[in-house]
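Re: that chain you flagged

S.,

Sorry for the slow reply, it's been a week of failed gels. I finally had a moment to sit down with the sequence you sent. For the record, here it is as I used it:
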Amino acid sequence: MHDCCDAAAMDNAAAGGHLNVVQWLHKTRKEGCTAAAIDRAASGGHFDVIFFLHCERVEGCSAKAFVNATAAGQLEVLMWLFTNHREQLGRDRLRIYALGKFYILHWLKVEAGANEREAFTSEANALAQG
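Prediction finished late last night. Pasting the structure tokens below so you have them in one place:
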């Protein structure tokens, strides 16, 4: 076995959507991963990898997962993150990346609490008007 593996190995495999590699590293190596594994998998919409990491690992994700999913237009991943890792959500950064993605901004507006609904509505209206 190579001694050169570190957490970056699983992070990189997750980013590329290589579930079989992530599973193998989880089973055979002790280095684990970082929150960047889910963060980066969100960019590619690699839901199978995200779900495996969520179920089998404890590292979780950061607000960057929400930003990455939004920037990449991965609404399904964003919805799942919103349900399962809502405590990591960074709405201010997310709104910036949502611009230009009306369907995501609309979904966020619907899911936002009453105190943030006005901000999302204003952004959605501005986006719709061009």
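What I noticed first: The chain has a mean pLDDT of 85.

Talk soon,
D.
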